[in-house]
Amino acid sequence: SNFFVPTVYEEVQTDEKGTKENLEVPLIIEADGTDYLVFFDEQQRLNDWAEKEVPCLQLPGHVLTEMTPNELHWAMNIGTDYNKQFAPDEIGWLKDVVAKCKAEDAGQSE
């Protein structure tokens, strides 16, 4: 499945010299001291939540899983009846599943 990750532009240091660029990055929100990566299973749900059409990345679930840092939480479909929060241990379990599937696929293609 593909997911829709809203993005924002943020000034990011890109080298040791302190060069900064304005880059499009995934939206991370903070609630009660916890950082959440926000994403949606449908573009329309994202737009409804944002109350407008917003820039986003469309990513397969395995890519979303692999790119998530260990301490980051997920907030899927916030503001809808289909919302789910994922804790780092749940995401870690998904990372293990993705790694096993990739290893099996690599073994079968040899």
- Give the strand tally: 7
Task: Give the SSE order as H and E letters.
Answer: EEEEHEHEEH
What structural class results from the helix and strand content?
alpha+beta
Oligomerization state of this entry? single chain
CATH class: Alpha Beta
Largest sheet: spatial strand order: 3-4-6-7
Total domain units: 1
Helix count equals 3
Inertia-based shape = globular
**How many strands, what sense, and barrel or not for the largest sheet?**
4 strands, mixed
Note the beta-strand portion.
35-45%
CATH topology: Trna Endonuclease, Chain: A, domain 1
Determine the fraction of residues in helical runs and give it as a percent range: 25-40%
Alpha-carbon distance between the termini? Answer: 26 Å
**Radius of gyration computed on alpha carbons:** 16 Å
Give the name of the CATH architecture: 3-Layer(aba) Sandwich
Determine the mean pLDDT.
Answer: 93
- The poorly predicted ranges are none
